[in-house]
Design brief:
The chain has helices at about 20-45, 50-60, 65-70, 75-85, 110-130, 135-155; strands at about 1-5, 10-15, 90-95, 105. With about 160 residues, it is an alpha+beta fold.
Length: about 160
């Protein structure tokens, strides 16, 4: 049964809420996952926004303005981030092939190795864990995780 909490009209609660081991494990996973970025940035001797820029660039090339929007920083701050990454050899600035007036920030092999090298031990451990599942177990885990993702997306 769902009721509205007095004084908080947009916050409903469930009277029969019960923490289960899976809900506790999921909550712990979300908390631990938040620590990955800062820990990797520290080990790589990068700022958090520098690491976030590299992670984005692993996925796709962007211009400085797009990078600033993604990172939630000013264009000037984005330029400083790119300058620091260029100085470390992790990115280059290149003319956009379709519009020579624009610049693209391009990830170098060094930048890719920095990000993936830091994350690879976690990826290997997760792949080993996944390999231990049979198809039926994987289907249950997949359904649970997809449902958790959907629940979190509804919140954000």
């Amino acid at each position: 049964m769902t009721e509205e909490r007095p004084g908080a009209p947009h916050t409903a609660y469930v009277e029969d809420w019960h923490q289960t081991s899976t809900l506790l494990a999921l909550r712990e996973l979300l908390q631990v996952a938040q620590q990955v970025g800062p820990a990797v940035a520290k080990r790589a001797e990068l700022g958090h926004t520098e690491l976030a820029a590299l992670e984005l660039l692993v996925e796709r090339q962007v211009g400085p303005a797009d990078l600033a929007r993604h990172l939630g920083v000013t264009s000037a701050a984005s330029s400083g981030i790119v300058d620091r990454l260029v100085a470390r050899g992790h990115v280059t600035r290149e003319a956009d092939a379709s519009d020579g007036r624009r610049t693209r920030v391009v990830l170098t092999d060094s930048g890719r190795e920095e990000v993936l090298g830091q994350l690879m031990p976690m990826f290997v451990a997760l792949a080993q864990l996944d390999a231990g599942l049979d198809d039926a177990e994987r289907a249950v885990v997949d359904r649970y995780l997809r449902g958790a993702i959907a629940a979190i997306r509804r919140l954000i």
